[in-house]
């Protein structure tokens, strides 16, 4: 049974931890591990199922009634600590050490081109304001916590309050340069970074100014 001194967080969190470490488990096994009633466990597990964080499977036995065992879904993995940035940094350092900085730059440029090909079609036949709004939505889907607004002079500002690649960008500024270039290509506008989290800022802030020679909502990718 889990010792009380080892218990941390809510019952829900402990259930997820047990399913992560020992699953799949039955309601009875979870109740025994936690030292609470099966009814209490069932309520939490059903909630996890409703949120698509847990799933159930019926296991038939040679004798007796079938067992319902529970395990975590792939979606639940987002609730556990990850160190992807450490792995990414290690791989980039190996590439830098073995092939040089230019090879690292080529890697970031390749990422920019792939993202342009992926998101470019979403910007077609839209004016600048619609593109800025779409870009903000794309960044939000990637975890950047972005928002935008239009200033009185007609320019736009997009601000990101989180940077999922901050550890990488701090050591490899080419990541920030490629992101800014990508924004310019997607928006068809002049984009200037006025604040950067990788440089110690509280957010990544971009000033977006329409290009005088490009007033058409069309864009080619």
TrEMBL record:
It comes from the Bacteria. The keyword DNA-binding applies. InterPro entries: ArsR-like_HTH, Carb_Metab_HTH_regulators, WH-like_DNA-bd_sf, WH_DNA-bd_sf. Keywords: DNA-binding. The lineage of its organism: Bacteria, Bacillati, Bacillota, Bacilli, Bacillales. It holds the Pfam family HTH_24. The keyword Cytoplasm does not apply. It comes from Paenibacillus jilunlii. This is Transcriptional regulator. GO terms for molecular function: DNA binding. Transmembrane segments: none annotated.
């Amino acid at each position: 049974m889990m010792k009380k001194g080892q218990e941390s967080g809510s019952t829900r969190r402990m259930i997820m931890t047990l399913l992560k470490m020992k699953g799949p488990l039955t309601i009875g096994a979870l109740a025994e591990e936690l030292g609470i009633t099966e009814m209490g466990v069932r309520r939490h597990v059903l909630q996890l199922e409703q949120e698509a964080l847990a799933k159930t499977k019926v296991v038939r036995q040679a004798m007796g009634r079938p067992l319902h065992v529970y395990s975590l879904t792939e979606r639940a993995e987002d609730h556990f600590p990850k160190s992807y940035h450490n792995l990414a940094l290690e791989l980039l350092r190996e590439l830098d050490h073995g092939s040089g900085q230019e090879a690292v730059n080529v890697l970031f440029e390749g990422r920019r081109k792939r993202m342009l090909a992926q998101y470019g079609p979403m910007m077609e036949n839209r004016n600048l304001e619609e593109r800025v709004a779409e870009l903000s939505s794309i960044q939000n889907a990637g975890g950047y916590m972005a928002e935008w607004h239009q200033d009185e002079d007609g320019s736009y500002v997009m601000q990101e309050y989180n940077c999922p690649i901050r550890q990488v960008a701090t050591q490899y500024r080419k990541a920030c340069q490629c992101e800014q270039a990508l924004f310019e290509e997607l928006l068809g506008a002049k984009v200037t970074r006025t604040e950067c989290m990788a440089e110690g800022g509280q957010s990544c802030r971009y000033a977006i100014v329409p290009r005088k020679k490009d007033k058409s909502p069309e864009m080619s990718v």
